[in-house]
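Risk register update: the risk of archive-format incompatibility is retired. Evidence:
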Amino acid sequence: MDYHVIIVGAGPAGLFAAKEITEHSKLTVLVIDQGHDVDKRVCPATTYKGCTKCTPCNIMCGIGGAGTLSSGLLNLRPDIGGDLTHLIGSEKTALALIEEVDKTFLQYGAPNEIYNPTSVEAEELERKAAAVGVKFIPIAQRHIGTDRAPQVIKNFKADLEKKGVKFLLNKRVEQIEQGTVKLEDGSSISCRYMILAPGRSGADWLREEAKRLKIPTKYEPVDIGVRVEVPSVVMDPVIKISRDPKFHIYSDTYDDFVRTFCVNHQGFVVQEVYDDFVGVNGHALAHKKSHYSNFAFLVRVELTEPLEDTTLYGRTIALQATTLGGGKPILQRLGDLVKGHRSTWDRVEKGNVKPTLTNVTPGDIAMAMPHRIVTDIIEGLRKLDHVMPGVASSSTLLYAPEVKFSANRIYTNRDLETPIPGLFVAGDGAGLSRGIVTAAATGIIAARSVLKAESIPTPELGD
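Archived output:
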């Protein structure tokens, strides 16, 4: 046996699993990831002129996972970024896990400042939203920042190495068997336990491995939409209440679920390059600000037979948008979308929002996305405009596509152990979470299950 525990994936789930195991046992741990170390994951998108050099793996893989190059926002609530309470069956335990994850990030350099809506302010905003059929969800949040997140993750990794954790980077796992990991170069590494936490970039691989190993899985919904950019003054009043405000909306025409996600106040829209399509995201820096704010505006799509593959559906839309954009994201003013006009640079320049991402193609999002999704976006923004006046201005900029894929949910028991003994899963890639904090929490759960299997005592969750 080469190692007691092999962890596939060095994102939040993998790092927190490694930390939990090494702090409570002398089990040897190896973390394998196909991406780079933190210092080599510098993204050219931080120039905010558009990323044309990033590989998909550099964006999504490597130490810290996709969160390393994100805005580094920690949502400290168990029903955001997944449903941790439902997953483990105890609200007390879920809250304790969230607190433990937050303390760890603080330990490695996350800022002490926390955004926690006061009851009076949050209640007033909640009333204002409810009056127009919008639900506001107050959340305690900690913002690390895109520029600060790499150092926090670097500190995390350094501490794990001091505790004896080994890292094998730039190595792709080809196949797994019970007790054996086979790498793409043909070599094999043996272990007693395995935690698969490959993140969103490894979701397809994990799904195929589960299928080969006859582990049941289930398709999860996909979120399809745009990134919205407005003057920062439009969002100032709400940002003072909630750093990353979460609004849930149901459209009038189709009664579809639409939500805000990943708000970057005074931030930048950035391009993301994937294997066969481009997308957009947002960054917010601690030490560099713009005059604009952006957020994802996403429509939840669930499918049933004959097409249940939500990933394929979302990818098809992203491919179509990429084709129409000539290999770049599509940019359109909301006013042009409503009137059925294709945006041009001349139309964009007449507006009061100057795009923070310019490596785009002005165009018509309605040519790339289904009518139903376009209708949901327009109706949702009009409702949101009653809560944040100016959001539905004709000058508001929309970037497409923004697609948030959900991995197939891998069948497990409450210990996150698959039907194959000794094989555990965690994080976004296993369909157990949809964000940094919940992914980290599932890594802790999987690690404690490994320790339980070894009869090594650990603190009871929720104590």
